[in-house]
Amino acid sequence: MSDLNKKNLAVIKAENLGKDYKLYSRPSDRLSEILFNQYNKIFKLKARELHKNFSALSNVSFSLRKGEVLGILGRNGSGKSTLLQLIAGILHPTHGNIAVNGKVAALLELGSGLNPNFTGRENIFNLAAIQGLSKKETLKSIDEIIEFADIGAFIDEQVGKFSTGMIMRLAFAVNTILKPDILIIDEALAVGDIPFQAKCFQKLKELVNDGVTIVFVSHDISAVRSICNKSIWLRDGRIEMMGLAAEVADAYEKYCYKEQGVFYGNKKINPDKDDANLEDEPSEKLSYADDKKISLDKNTLFKNKERVGSLDVEIKDFRVVNKNEDIINECGFNEEIKFIFYLKLNKNINDPFMIGLRLKDLKGNYYLSMNDYKNIHFLNDNEGSEYKVCFKARLPLHHDTYSITVATFSLKNMELKNDYSNYDFTKALVWDHIDNAYFLTVKADIYPHAGPVQHFAEPEIDKIK
Q1: What is the pLDDT of residues 195-213, one digit of tens each?
Q2: Separation of alpha carbons 182 and 114, rounded Å
């Protein structure tokens, strides 16, 4: 057995890793500094510096073993891409050192490694050669690569004619099916359509089962929770937090909300202070004349909940009811239910808005998202006004207990267009966001489930011959 196959061997090990850059005010300063210092060296004068040092990465230490998946989180400019390039060997560290044991495949930029003048098929052999594979070895996998990429006859067209999605499909197919020892991914899945993204995540899980080590950078926090077992949160080039992926992802998500200048309850959050002493203001239970007076304290009161937002439009109450309008904590498989929000305006509002919820299991894996983003509504009313919003649904989910996150957002900072697929929802302003606002158990069903979600449908059956 080779050293690489020993499970406890550190496949990637970084020690006090750092990368600095010289920043010049003017391009000419770079040349001037070189000339001045050559002159000063000859006459033994003090060196002259016309640059400022910028530390893109500083004092980063970690290790990864065979088959582990590391998620890297952080805002733009935090050092994520620099770290990946150091692991891939594209950059050399200014400080510290990094040891990488094994064959590395990297998806760092869209189309990196692909020659736009070559066909898709020719690029497969080029990328394989970069990984050290012979033409004979590549031929064994080429049919599987082409099938996975699923770009049809374009495989024999020049890559320069490909769409961004096709480029990503081809690059991902080559770099995963040829099974490197280490796979590095930097937001490469973001341009893929939903079916292909699902196929990619399934392939990543297969690679992990085969012992491939993966380093994964993404702004999709739920993806990091789902596929990673370790995570690093980078902030200004330094490790802010490192540990279990779910714990780091939760802390980073909370930080992102704080950076927006939002609130906990009625108290302003300072991102640089520990909020252990902060307490949510208790929410009073509202009564509604047209609803049954049923109170479930652990579900309808939001005291001590993970809550962020400006509270301009506050979720005063949230409940799940059955078709008889009874508040429930459990439902049957695919049973008809309603998710009901009660909102209160704490200021005059004239904004487009979105309201929605997400269901996740107790391990943090998301299973269902429900919102009205395809049919943007406007809220134009005065302070003190109250609204009731209802989503009707059926939950074809496996027997389990699910946590429900609820939220309202203002979309006034977004450029609203008819093509909602191009919306940048990162610009939405959080009015109210309550994690673990409600817990709902889906009861066991008599029918066998092949996965977490099951859709029951009655097909039309016609004899055609």
Answers
A1: 677 678 878 888 988 999 9
A2: 19
